[in-house]
Write a structure and sequence with these properties.
Mean pLDDT of chain B: 94
CATH class of chain B: Mainly Alpha
Structural class of chain B: mainly alpha
Oligomer: heterodimer
Low-confidence stretches of chain B: none
Strand content of chain B: under 5%
Largest sheet of chain B: 2 strands, antiparallel
Radius of gyration of chain A: 27 Å
CATH topology of chain B: Arp2/3 complex 21 kDa subunit ARPC3
Distance between the termini of chain A: 38 Å
Mean pLDDT of chain A: 88
Strand order of the largest sheet of chain B: 1-2
Order of helices and strands of chain A: HHH
Strand content of chain A: under 5%
Structural class of chain A: mainly alpha
Shape of chain A: elongated
Distance between the termini of chain B: 48 Å
C-alpha cells in the first residue's frame, strides 16, 4: 500500500470511528429512544415551547413504513454513490488511455534516443 | 436534519422562501453559464451534486445520543462557488421533501437558506480566507467543509428560535435549546464531513488536476502565490 492509499484509508477509518464510537460507548443509553433523529427532537421541543402548535401542512407523500423510508434513503445514497463512482471511473479510464497512448508512441522515440546516446 | 413539514408558521415559511429565492435564481444562472462556457464541467458538477446526495442521506449517530446527517455542500462550494451549490442543494432538499417526507415544501425556503445558501457561502469564505493565509489546500478544504456543515445547523437553530421563542426566556432561551439539539449533535458529523471532503478532494487532485486548475481551486491566493506570480 503506498502512502497515498494509506492516508485515504486512515481518513475512512476516522469517519467510521466517529460514527461507531457513540454507539459503542452507549452515549444514547440515557434516552428512552436512543439515536432518534435530531429533527424529531426539535419537534418535541417545539411542542414543549408552544403546546398549541399544530403543523399546518403535511407531506404530500409519506413513506408508509420505516422500511420503505430507509429504502428510499438508501436509494438516494446509491444514486449519489453511483454518479461519484462513474465520475472517478471515467477519469481513471481517461488517464489509463492517455498512458497507453504515450506508451504506444514511445518505442520509436526511445530507440531513437538510445541510438543517439549509444 | 431539516425543519419538518409544517413546522414553521406560515409567515416565517414565506419570509425564508423570499430570502432564498434570489439566491436560487442567481444560482440557476451561474450554473447554466458554467455549463455553457465549460461543457467539460458537467461531469464534475454532477459529482458535486452526487456528493451532497450521498452525505445528506447518511444519518449518523452522534455524541448526544441522537442522529443527524451531514450536508456535503462544502465540496461543491469550493469547486464551483456557492451560487451553483444553491441549486444543487435545493435539488437534494426537494428530493427529500417530496419522496422521503424529510424536510418539507413549506419549510423548503428555510432549509434552502440554511443548507444551500449560508452553508456553502460560509464554507467558501473560510476556504478563501485560509488559502489567502497560505494554509495548505487540504487543511483549508477540511475547515471549509466543517464550517459549511456546522453553520447550516446553526442557522436551522436560529430559524426555529425565531419562530418559537421561549415563553420565559425569549428567543435566546429557545436558541440555546435548539442549538443544543442541532449544533452539538452536528459537531462530530461536521468533522466527519470535513474528513470525507478531504478524501474526495485528494482523489480529485489525483484524477482531475486539469479541472481543479481551471476552476482556480489549487491557487492559494496568498503571499506565496503572489510571489510566485511576480517571479514569473
Amino acid at each position: 500500500m503506498n502512502r497515498n492509499t494509506k492516508i485515504n484509508a486512515l481518513l475512512v477509518l476516522a469517519v467510521l470511528a466517529l460514527a461507531v464510537l457513540p454507539l459503542a460507548l452507549g452515549l444514547g443509553d440515557h434516552k428512552e429512544e436512543p439515536f432518534t433523529g435530531a429533527d424529531g427532537q426539535a419537534e418535541a421541543v417545539i411542542t414543549e415551547l408552544e403546546p398549541d402548535y399544530e403543523p399546518w401542512f403535511s407531506p404530500l407523500y409519506e413513506p408508509p413504513s420505516g422500511e420503505i423510508e430507509s429504502g428510499l434513503f438508501s436509494l438516494q445514497a446509491a444514486l449519489g454513490a453511483g454518479v461519484l463512482a462513474y465520475y472517478f471511473g471515467v477519469h481513471r479510464g481517461r488517464r489509463q488511455g492517455e498512458a497507453r497512448a504515450r506508451a504506444a508512441a514511445r518505442p520509436s522515440g526511445d530507440t531513437a534516443g538510445t541510438e543517439e546516446s549509444g | 436534519m431539516h425543519i419538518a413539514e409544517g413546522y414553521l408558521p406560515p409567515l416565517h415559511a414565506v419570509a425564508w422562501g423570499a430570502a432564498s429565492a434570489p439566491f436560487v435564481v442567481h444560482g440557476v444562472r451561474a450554473l447554466s453559464r458554467e455549463v455553457k462556457a465549460h461543457p467539460e464541467s458537467t461531469l464534475l458538477l454532477g459529482a458535486s451534486g452526487a456528493f451532497t446526495f450521498v452525505l445528506s442521506a447518511l444519518k449518523i449517530p452522534s455524541v448526544t445520543g441522537s442522529c443527524s446527517h451531514p450536508t456535503g455542500t462544502g465540496l461543491g462550494a469550493i469547486l464551483f462557488r456557492p451560487p451553483v451549490m444553491a441549486v444543487l442543494g435545493t435539488i437534494t432538499l426537494l428530493f427529500q421533501a417530496l419522496l422521503l417526507a424529510h424536510g418539507g415544501l413549506t419549510t423548503l425556503g428555510a432549509n434552502v437558506f440554511s443548507m444551500a445558501v449560508v452553508g456553502p457561502w460560509a464554507g467558501y469564505a473560510v476556504f478563501r480566507l485560509l488559502r489567502s493565509w497560505d494554509a495548505p489546500l487540504m487543511v483549508s478544504v477540511f475547515f471549509a467543509a466543517f464550517v459549511a456543515d456546522l453553520s447550516t445547523y446553526c442557522v436551522t437553530s436560529v430559524q426555529l428560535a425565531l419562530a418559537f421563542p421561549d415563553p420565559g426566556t425569549g428567543v435566546a432561551g429557545s436558541l440555546a435549546k435548539f442549538t443544543g439539539i442541532f449544533a452539538v449533535t452536528q459537531l462530530p458529523l461536521a468533522v466527519s464531513e470535513g474528513l470525507l471532503t478531504v478524501l474526495v478532494m485528494r482523489l480529485l487532485v489525483k484524477s482531475s488536476k486539469g479541472d481543479l486548475t481551471r476552476l482556480g481551486v489549487l491557487v492559494s491566493g496568498g503571499r506565496a502565490a503572489r510571489k510566485e506570480a511576480a517571479a514569473r
